[in-house]
Amino acid sequence: MTGGISLGLLSLSGAAPGNITVVFNPLEQMIGFIPSSQDGAAPPSLLRQLIEGVVLLLSRLTFILSTSARNTVFLAWLVLAGIVYAWRRGARGAASQAALMVVAVCAVDLAGTFRGLKLEYFIITDPLLILAAAWLLARVPALQRHQLVRPAGVLLLIAMVVVGSAEPVKHSFKQDVPLDFCRPNYYYTSRIESFSFCPR
């Protein structure tokens, strides 16, 4: 663990100071994306944004109402089921701790809704969701021996691969809308004129 933290910090040694600040405090950067209101209407605007963010979060959590390439949504389902199971088995401490992690995930994702809950921001919250699942498995041994754990694990792996591959496959066959990276001297790849997968 110490080695991993050291390597992570070493990768920041040549980064710009602004990037280092974002790495250590991403929430401040994300909250800065809240659209500013005019004519003193900031509270209603912020309230509307929060309500819309909660609706977006709930619809993304169902995956049916709003699909996305975030395959850990299925892990969230299992974590929520594991919290209920742990609570009913009397392991209320572990259930409360895992629930607190899920609440933290939702709170950070709510800040991400100010920019449309982009897939890039899930690198902040997905590890916490994985920790919640591991915490439940470690603290509630009966959960490990449950008859549905193995089938659920297999289905989760299949869903991870299928959902995680859906977006790249879709964009590989998309022809009606030009890909961003196929624009000449695109902002993020300004030194590259074109890629092999771009239409000629």
Describe the structure.
The chain is mostly helical and 200 residues long. It has a domain at 22-33 and 46-162. It has helices at residues 2-11, 17-24, 26-31, 42-62, 73-88, 92-112, 122-139, 141-144, 149-173. The mean pLDDT is 76.
Mean pLDDT: 76
General form: globular
Structural class, from helix and strand content? mainly alpha
Number of strands: 0
CA-atom Rg in angstroms: 20 Å
Low-confidence stretches: none
Q: How many helix segments?
A: 9
The main pleated sheet reads as: none
Q: Keyphrases for this structure?
A:
mainly alpha, 0% strand
Topology:
Elements (H helix, E strand, L loop, with lengths): L1 H10 L5 H8 L1 H6 L10 H21 L10 H16 L3 H21 L9 H18 L1 H4 L4 H25 L27
Helix pairs in contact: 4-6, 5-6, 5-7, 6-7
Short description:
The protein is an all-alpha fold. Helix content is 64%, strand content 0%.
